[in-house]
Write a structure and sequence with these properties.
The chain has 196 residues and is mainly alpha-helical. It has nine helices and no strands. It folds into two domains: 100 residues, Rna Polymerase Sigma Factor, Chain: A, CATH 1.10.1740; 86 residues, Arc Repressor Mutant, subunit A (Orthogonal Bundle).
Amino acid sequence: MELKKLSDQELISQFLKGNQQGLEVLINRHKNKVYTYILLLVKDPVVAEDIFQDTFVKIVNSLTGGRYRDDGKFLSWTIRIAHNLTIDHFRKIKKSNEVQGDSFETFVLNSKKHSADNIEEKLIKEQIRNDIRCLVDELPNEQKEVILLRHYGGLSFKEIAEQTGVSINTSLGRMRYALINLRKMIQDKKLSLTIK
């Protein structure tokens, strides 16, 4: 049987019957969206990898413990677990009064793939991404959440509405206001978000 062709629920069923490959296919299917979502929140690849692994450990425990009810929303459920673990991470940092350096920039600038010929263009693109990410961080939490889930998490507005417990219209409205606010911030700060 070709596991990659199975639905999320069928893969979960395979895993619960003892087929570990079912879980492996499931993780590989969603790992990019989940990891990217976490990385955009924590901005540190090492921390993101830890939270990503913790997310799937929690998923395995929930599946084997019978605490997952399939409603066709495995990815939304997974993102919600990742989101909660990320919040827990920030609470731990706040409690221990750690000041975490932003090593993401260092990671990007020291990466071999960025040392190719057109380094200036790559640096400009990276700066644009960082500028946008900083602007997104300035948005109200509800607007920031919908931007992260939609553009970085790849969720549909229906999935966003289900995850955040609001209507689709509210999700769409939050996105609209987020975009209006981002445009206004770009104008106010006189940012140039294009490569010349």
